[in-house]
Amino acid sequence: MENRNPYASPRAKVQDAGGEDYGEIKIFSAAGRLGRVRYIGYSAGITLLVGGIGFGLSGVLGASGQTNVALVLGGLTYVAVIVVQFLLTIQRAHDFDTTGWLSVLLFVPLVALIFWFIPGSKDENRYGKPPPPNTAGAIALACIVPVVVFVGILAAIAIPAYQDYAQRAQQYEQRQQ
Length: 177
Fold this sequence. Notes:
Layout: H1 36-63, H2 67-95, H3 114-117, H4 136-176
Helix pairs in contact: 1-2, 1-4
């Protein structure tokens, strides 16, 4: 029997048992796959970023009297947002092993929400390897979407109601004098 040291470092080559390989995330490409959380987060983030900058500049130009330039910039911004949304939706359709032509459903109101709810393939499919696990930033970005929608609906209800209340209170005060 050999005299081996039980405290010596191992000499065997060790590999990860779960060495899963993930696909690369390419936002501005129609190739590859994109998971639900990243789809929601990237869609909202890019739309808010590109739309906010483009339409903001368009509004400033329009207010300064350069309406033709403002219209062109607004149109280009709208086209850029639509193109990026299509690219992201094509990748999302690839995630659940469907053709990218399904992204045409973006033009049908509320039907496009299917891309939020249909789960993707867990393993590699004909469109590539699975997307990497979600990062904290992607999850936070995706959680912002329902918050913004809720706050927007609440503001759309509360602001006119408050204005009506203030107007009636002012009228009441005028009658009392």
